[in-house]
Amino acid sequence: VNMCGDGRLGQIGEALRFSLTPTLQKDFSESQIMLLGNNCTFVVTRHGSVFACGEGSYGRLGQGNSDDLHTLTAISALQGYVVTSMSTSKGSDGHSLAVTETGEVFSWGDGDYGKLGHGNSERQRRPRQIQALQGEEVVQVSCGYKHTGVVTSDGKLYTFGNGDNGRLGLASSCNKKLPERVLALEDFKVGQVSCGLNHTLCVSADGLHVWAFGDGDYGKLGLGSVVGKSTPTEIEALRGVGVASALAGTLPG
Question: Would you say the C-alpha torsion 84, 168, 159, 64 has a positive or negative sign?
């Protein structure tokens, strides 16, 4: 793995503080999945172990404290689980979710607006299983700036966190501190979700439908206008195309 950029908080490894060109980082050689978050980095190995480094404020590294780490360090609370996928926010104060091979989902970091799904706004400095999703087999998660989306194996979409601009797709702007199913899509099987700055995109499991909701500034919902939507609205231009995945941006503009 080669890395470059600002590493003053440890997010690109112990040997680098700043690099203008890609530099080999042997500590990251076991990476099966790598995620770059808000001043932090996560690695999932081929065995499903999770390691973290970088800025530790708000408990975003899952180590039980708020210390920065300049070397990849295992997240001990996830040991014994095989993690198959993860998501980490690119802004706000940093939160992450991890999914195990048996469909359990854990969250940690900043808890503002209820975006960790534990029924409160408290930060979690260690990964904590989302109890409200027990009984569901989670297959994919997405951490937005201030909200979170979760997809289950049978195609349900759950959202929680900040509800401004209708980004949760629940026909309101209320915050949700527990996962709530997006009932507007109950007649479809959702395959993927992407949570952005203040909007959300999701794709049907067959790739034939893409929906958008939340803030519509700059036309980022793809609906032909700048009007926001508080419930999932299909992007007609993508109907029947066969979309594999969608990505909602996390920066303003």
Answer: positive
Percent of the chain with pLDDT strictly greater than 90: 84
CA-CA distances (angstroms) from residue 176 to 70, 91, 128, 172, 213?
A: 35, 19, 18, 10, 16
Is residue 58 classed as helix, strand or coil in its secondary structure?
helix
- Cα 108 from Cα 98, distance rounded (Å): 9
Extract the tokens encoding 180. 């709530």
Amino acid found at 238: L
Q: Give Dmax (Cα) for the chain.
A: 51
108-120 pLDDT, tens digit each: 999 999 999 999 9
In DSSP notation, 124-174 reads EEEEEE-GGGTTS-EEEEEE-SSEEEEEETTS-EEEEE--GGGTTSSSS--
Token pair for residue 137? 């087999």
CA nearest neighbour of 97 among 68, 133, 73: 133
187 Cβ contact partners less than 8 Å away, ≥ 6 residues apart: none
Based on DSSP, count helices (H) and strands (E) in the chain, helices before strands: 0, 18
Angle at 153 between CA 85 and CA 231, to 5 degrees: 95
Distance CA 201, CA 214 (A): 9
Q: Which residues contact 30 (CB under 8 A, 6 or more apart)?
A: 43, 45, 46
pTM over 0.85: yes
Say how far apart CA 146 and CA 113 lie, in whole Å.
Answer: 7
Can you tell me the distance from the alpha carbon of 146 to that of 226, in angstroms, rounded to the nearest whole number?
21
DSSP string, 118-129: SSS---EEEEEE
